[in-house]
Specification:
33% of the residues lie in helices and 24% in strands. With 424 residues, the chain is α+β, with helices and mostly antiparallel strands. The mean pLDDT is 94. The structure holds zinc ion (2 copies).
């Protein structure tokens, strides 16, 4: 990390405080585990920020802050040099550590700071198998997260290679600083009182999700160039935004930034074609100009100008990976989309546009969903998969209609903006 000025250091501190106070809402006496060991790893450049997070955590009364770290470069070396039959090797102790933290009432923070080209030019089969192994092994943690067993949070931190992809004309140091500035803007760290700004933001999003939950639309109809799709919504679906309640009784915000209100689609009710509005990075590979065709909820055809085989692998990870698990609405005027560039990370890019996800649905998006068995959840329309991949479909040319229980429709979004007026 370049040594920036006082203002930068001040923002880094404010960001760390926001992560602990608003994101995780860490309680005095809780343990915190920072999981930097995802499939893509986290570059060691983010260490000064991790130190700030640990400081903020201890100041909030954390009993113990622990980090599991997998460096990007180590992953790349493995993908390049490890024996070709070793893709199923896995550090199961990571999972034991993370699950031990869940069982002991700890909180979990995941940092994303990925070089979008980390694996480019490397053995796609080996990387695909590595990714698949991770998804399978990680599933107990995924399950704990989808039912909000703990207060958890995913955030972004700048790093040179990621920043260089976004701002190729700048030096690596300038690019890294510019990406930090962007992160501070979209997470409201640069506002005079970031915590108050988040309280207002959370209140506004909550009013929309409450309104949509009350509507109980039977389906949403999407229309845009290259898109004509109807997605059914199950009975009892709940729209959620920024603030959620964990099973440990702590209210938390799972993603920063977050601009979406989202719910679960019915796993057997998507029909038509949808064209992505932005490229997607999946397991280190860029997928561009792609569309998915659905019949009775299942992807029956994929096409992409770039990365088609990766897209195919993505929807074939297991049975549920070819069905939808999330529908999310984000206005085209969102501050992230107004920046006018991709971040090459779904955590941020998904908050620039309305999106769908193939794969696992969140139990919390259905009334009483946490208590259902997997079979009951699926019978009610919830999707189950080891995967969950968001892809962006919204643009200023997209209209979305809500289909009411009687079959009539009403506008939800027009040309990418909310068509619903709320009295907040
Ligand atoms: Zn989403
Ligand atoms: Zn998602």
């Amino acid at each position: 990390m370049p040594s920036f000025n006082d203002k930068f250091n001040d923002n880094l501190k404010k960001y760390a405080d926001l992560v602990i106070k608003v994101g995780l809402n860490l309680r005095a006496g809780q343990r915190l585990i920072i999981n930097n060991a995802s499939t893509r790893g986290v570059p060691l450049h983010t260490a000064p920020f991790v130190h700030e997070v640990a400081r903020a955590a201890y100041e909030a009364g954390a009993r113990f802050v622990d980090v599991i770290w997998n460096d990007e470069e180590l992953l790349r070396l493995r993908a390049q040099l490890a024996p070709r039959d070793s893709a199923k090797e896995y550090s199961t102790w990571h999972i034991n550590g993370l699950m031990n933290n869940v069982e002991n009432g700890g909180a979990m923070l995941s940092i994303r700071s990925n070089d979008p080209n980390l694996f480019s030019g490397l053995d796609a089969d080996f990387i695909g198998a590595m990714q698949q192994t991770h998804l399978e092994q990680f599933s107990p943690v995924t399950e704990a997260v989808t039912i909000n067993k703990l207060n958890w949070l995913v955030i972004a931190a700048s790093s040179p290679k990621w920043a260089a992809k976004l701002f190729p004309a700048l030096s690596q140091e300038e690019a890294e600083a510019k990406l930090w500035e962007a992160i501070f803007q979209i997470t409201r760290v640069d506002q005079p009182d970031p915590i108050a700004a988040w309280e207002t933001h959370i209140r506004n999003l909550h009013a929309r999700s409450k309104y949509l939950t009350g509507k109980q639309y039977k389906a949403l109809k999407y229309t845009a160039p290259g898109t004509d799709l109807t997605v059914g919504l199950p009975d009892g679906h709940k729209w959620i935004s920024a603030r959620e309640m964990a099973q440990n009784g702590i209210e938390f915000t799972a993603n920063m930034p977050t601009e979406e209100v989202f719910t679960m689609p019915h796993r057997e009710q998507a029909d038509g074609v949808v064209t992505a509005a932005m490229p997607l990075v999946y397991s280190g590979i860029l997928i561009e100009d792609f569309s998915l065709t659905f019949e009775k909820g299942r992807v029956v055809k994929v096409s992409a100008k770039k990365g088609e085989s990766t897209l195919k692998n993505m929807v074939e990870a297991d049975e549920g990976a070819s069905r939808l698990g999330e529908v999310a609405l984000v206005p085209y005027s969102s501050p992230i989309s107004q920046r006018g560039h991709l971040f090459y990370d779904p955590l941020i890019d998904e908050n620039a546009a309305s999106h769908l996800a193939v794969g696992r649905a969140y139990r919390t998006n259905m009334a009483g969903g946490d208590e259902l068995t997997e079979a009951e959840f699926m019978a009610r329309g919830g999707n189950v998969s080891i995967n969950h991949v968001d892809f962006m479909i919204g643009s200023n040319k997209m209209d979305i209609d809500g289909v009411k229980q009687d079959g009539s429709t009403e506008p939800v979004m027009r040309q990418g903006e909310w068509a619903i007026q709320l009295n907040t």
